UniProtKB/TrEMBL annotation:
Annotated source species: Peptoniphilus hominis (ex Hitch et al. 2025)
NCBIfam families: accessory_GlmL, glmL_fam
Identification of the protein by name: Methylaspartate mutase accessory protein GlmL
Coiled coil region boundaries: none
Membrane-spanning residues: none
Superkingdom of origin organism: Bacteria
Annotated InterPro entries: ATPase_NBD (IPR043129), MutL (IPR006230)
Length: 457
């Protein structure tokens, strides 16, 4: 028998799956606590030990080892553009689509205080955009001059290609670490992020592969293919689209609630009704948003601050809520057994989902055009999404995961949130592994994930 070994190095847990190739099934799955400070090799060794105790690895032929990682904690990034609605929004989408966490976005001309703030934020990468090809060059050139003062943060430039020569003349005489990518918005309302995303991914992978202890894991050398969020998005795309052999699920959403963030992945056409007029930058078929202020542990208090009424609608005083959220932030690795604390975890999770889906979904407004009232749509229409898949510990381990996932229907003020999806959970926590497997065998990846998704009613 031969097997694929799939590894996800997380900032909290390292997860390993063994895939039985001949019988097309998930053979075994284990996880162990990851300590980034001590070294990721420790968590991997512990997980491998657990796996060996179950299957005796010496008797198995491991055909291929593939890995993804978020042990670096996710790239912290700053995006810079011209207008918030267009180039700055394009910068945001390129960053998030590459598996990054956007910590700040800037518009128009950078000021000296902005440069000081960026240096204090100390992001892992800065993405500089601005101007359609052949269009306005002033903003991106002036901002490049300001950014040339920053020495140790990689700068990806993905704006007006007509300004490339002038920007290069500015930066080559500084000590800036910079790289050019194709314009993320070469024409008005046309979004082309792939080259910028690939440049960001390369920087991310360089950081991941140098995580403490990674060089000690010989079996993993050169086999970390992608950031974990990218692997999850690949799995979502596979499930929606299917393969030549298997019919896909159709339009879907993946809700991933973690300790620090809540990620929403949607796989669907952005514009559902021809009667709507689309405003703003057109959305992509594959969309991912990361809410860095909505999480179960590190971001528990900010989750409360973002949606106080959602917490206060339960039987808790504000004092109790603050105490519970603060305790979670101070002890992010805590796993509760107490029913009361598990109940409060569910409250946090429900509010994380509600806020995150409202940020992810588009909206609609009534307007008047050519003598007629018409609907103007801004962002992605998710009303007709067929399935929602939940992952993350609080969903997988909850007695009533549907009650958490149903919050994707709680749209605010004309938000285009899902109306009547069916609900599934990633019961074995293998979405990231399936994304890895899809790079070498889509049919096998689809079969295993569909067999291990559990519908909840």
């Amino acid at each position: 028998m031969s097997f694929y070994m799939l590894v996800d190095f997380g900032s909290t847990y390292t997860k390993i799956s063994l895939i039985d190739i001949e019988n097309g099934r998930l053979f075994e799955r284990v996880n162990a606590h990851t300590s980034v400070k001590e070294g990721v090799d420790k968590g991997f060794e512990e997980a491998l030990k657990k796996l060996d105790e179950k299957v005796n690895l010496k008797n198995l032929e491991i055909k291929e080892v593939l890995a993804c990682s978020s042990t670096y904690g996710g790239l912290k990034m700053v995006g810079i553009g011209i207008t918030p609605q267009y180039t700055t929004e394009a910068a945001k989408r390129a960053l998030v689509g590459a598996g990054a966490k956007l910590i700040k976005a800037y518009n128009y001309y950078l000021k000296e205080r902005d440069i000081e703030e960026i240096e204090k934020l100390n992001p892992d990468i800065i993405l500089l955009t601005g101007g359609a090809d052949g269009g306005n060059k002033d903003y991106i050139i002036e901002n490049a001059k300001k950014l040339s003062k920053i020495k140790n943060i990689p700068l990806v430039i993905a704006g007006n290609s007509s300004a490339k020569e002038e920007i290069e003349n500015i930066l080559k005489n500084s000590n800036s670490n910079y790289i050019f990518a194709e314009n993320v918005m070469p024409d008005v309302n046309r979004f082309t992020p792939e080259d910028a995303k690939e440049k960001i991914r390369e920087i991310f992978m360089e950081k991941i592969t140098h995580a403490k202890g990674m060089d000690k894991i010989k079996i993993i050398k050169d086999r970390v293919l992608m950031p974990t969020p990218t692997a999850v998005l690949k799995a979502a795309e596979l499930m929606a689209m299917g393969t030549e052999k298997y019919e896909g699920f159709g339009d879907l959403i993946v809700v991933d609630i973690g300790g620090a963030t809540t990620d929403i992945h949607s796989v669907s056409e952005a514009h559902k009704l021809e009667s709507n007029i689309l405003e703003g930058l057109r959305e992509y078929f594959l969309k991912r948003t990361v809410e860095g202020d909505m999480g179960m542990r590190y971001s528990a208090y900010s989750a409360f601050e973002n949606y106080r009424e959602g917490f206060l609608s339960h039987d808790y005083s504000e004092e109790e809520i603050i105490k519970k959220c603060t305790m979670r932030q101070k002890n992010p690795e805590i796993i509760f057994q107490d029913e009361e604390e598990l109940k409060f975890d569910k409250v946090i999770a429900e509010n994380c989902v509600r806020v995150s889906i409202n940020r992810h979904a588009g909206s609609i407004r009534k307007g008047y055009l050519n003598g007629h009232y018409i609907d103007f749509q801004d962002g992605k229409d998710l009303r007709f999404v067929k399935k929602a898949i939940g992952t993350g510990g609080v969903i997988i381990n909850n007695k009533n995961p549907k009650e958490i996932l149903e919050k994707i229907k709680d749209g605010e003020n004309n938000k285009l949130t899902p109306e009547n999806p069916s609900y599934f959970i990633d019961e074995k926590y293998i979405l990231s592994h399936i994304g890895l497997l899809s790079t070498i065998d889509k049919d096998l990846a689809f079969k295993i994930l569909s067999e291990n998704l559990k519908e909840v009613k």
